[in-house]
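User: Before I run my own analysis I want an independent prediction to cross-check against. Here's the chain; please return only the structure tokens and, at the end, one sentence I can use as a sanity check.
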Amino acid sequence: MLHEARAQFFLHFNMEESNVGGLGIILSDLAICYQAESFHPDTLNIEMALDDASRCGCDMVYRISKDADNTLVATAKTGLVFFDYNNKKSFINSERI
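Assistant: Structure tokens:
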């Protein structure tokens, strides 16, 4: 679900995970803290924000809650590294800097 939310986030801003300002991304880490249970067919809301941005990547933070009563189901964080797939280099090692 987090991957789908992240993909839709980029699409909302007319980008794709394979092309964020001309670079792709690599998921470098993932942390999830579960707060409550959720079951099918619960409808979930996923709120997202960017955090800790740097020239080589950023964190995406997520808040997942139940639509019916706004119960917090989980919080999560993914670390994203910008990557030049054509040159096989992370953004920090790329000539683009």
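Sanity check: The first helix runs from residue 2 to 12.
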